[in-house]
Structures are given as C-alpha cells and as structure tokens.
Amino acid sequence: MRGGQSKPEADVVVGRDNQPTKGVSMKLMTMAVSLALAVTPVLAQTTSADGPAADSAAGVGVTTDAVFVKLATSSNILEIRSSELARDRAGSDAVKAFAERMIADHAAASAKLAEVAGQPAPDMSADLSGQMDAKHAEQLAALEAVTGEGFEQAYIDLQRQAHDAAVALFQSYATNGEDGAVKDFAEATVPTLQEHLTLVQDMSEAP
C-alpha cells in the first residue's frame, strides 16, 4: 500500500479445496448475462403468440380463430371506411373506381368471415370504431385529416400498407391457424388480397 490507498482486490470465490479462486465470480456473472440475453428473444417469441405482440395490424404469428377474426374484421373495416372517404374526396376516376371495389370486396369478405366464425356480420352503416385495432384506427384517423391534393396519395399509401399487412396476416393464418372453416376462409381470400395489392401498387407507380 502506497500513499494511503489500497489496491482493489479481484473477485474471489472459494473452491472446493477452500482455496481462493480469483476472477471466477466475474466469469460466472458474464456467462449469466449472456445466457439471459440469449433466452430473452425466445421467451418473447413464445409468450407473444396471440398476445400483445401478435395482436397487431401485421398479425404474423396469430394461431387462434378468435384473434384472427378480430384482426381480419378490423382490417376490413379500415379498407371500407378509408375507401368511403376516397369515393367522396378523390378526384381521379381510377382511384374512385378502386375505392368502390374495395368497399364491395371487403364488405363481402367481412360478411363471409362473420358467417364462418359464427358471428353476426358487422353493420357497415353503424359506428364500428370500437371493433378496430389500435393501429388501424390511427391509420384511418390520419387519412381523415388529409384534405386537398394530398388526399389521393395518402389513400394509396394507406391501401398499400394495409394490403401488405392483410396479405401477411391471411397467409400466416392459412399456414399456422387452427384447422377449420376460418383457416379455409383465410386461405381462399389470399388471392383476392394479393390482387388488391397489385392494383394499388400499379396506382402508386402511375404517373
């Protein structure tokens, strides 16, 4: 010891022979932290299935009818409500025609989904905001706030995002969902959603 200061001692662990083993505790701590970091993502993936992480607009990882029906219903409401806005606000005939098709196709899909799920079909003339996923509700509110020349592009952007998410949700459930009528519906609906996505991609690339 010099200058009244003591040198910090290394961590010490007493081994089976009662002899101190320096640095072992630090190594054990490092190993424990590494193991925790490695396990955390696995636990997150396991516990998120059909939980908060699965209950999102994307919906990948959904494996139960109840959660799929909730998300798919919300997706249909978003498509219909946003397209009703476009039908009234868009200036382009092409965008208006696309919006009319989205209203018709997604109303039919919503009714069919309710049928196979054994639930009442949503009344599209009623306020259905309470049946929307939080992200879908945010997307619709953002579009409602857009007016003027920027509306059409905002609508097209929303439709592209919504159909990307819908295709992912329906494809995932068609592969991983519970066997039965709802899963069959998801599989049968994928081609229509993919067609919608192609149409909106073509619109977004149009001059």
In short:
This protein is mainly α and 207 residues long. The protein folds into 2 domains: 12-48, no CATH class; 65-205, Ferritin, CATH 1.20.1260.10. The protein is built from 6 helices and 2 strands, in the order E-E-H-H-H-H-H-H.
Structural write-up:
- There is one protein chain.
- The chain is mostly helical and 207 residues long.
- It folds into 2 domains: 12-48, no CATH class; 65-205, Ferritin, core subunit, four-helix bundle (Ferritin, Up-down Bundle).
- It is built from 6 helices and 2 strands, in the order E-E-H-H-H-H-H-H.
- It has a two-stranded antiparallel sheet.
- The longest helix has 26 residues, at 151-176.
- The radius of gyration is 27 Å and the shape is globular.
- Residues 1-57 have low confidence and may be disordered.
Helical segment tally?
6
Mean pLDDT, to the nearest integer, reads: 79
What is the CA–CA distance across the termini? Answer: 80 Å
Kindly identify the CATH topology of the largest domain.
Ferritin
Give the low-pLDDT segments: 1-57
* CATH homologous superfamily caption of the largest domain: Ferritin, core subunit, four-helix bundle
Structural class: mainly alpha
Radius of gyration: 27 Å
How many beta-strand segments? Answer: 2
Strand portion: under 5%
Biggest β-sheet: strands ordered side by side in the sheet: 1-2
Largest sheet descriptor: 2 strands, antiparallel
Protein name: DUF305 domain-containing protein
Pfam family, one: DUF4142
Organism: Paragemmobacter aquarius
Keywords: Signal
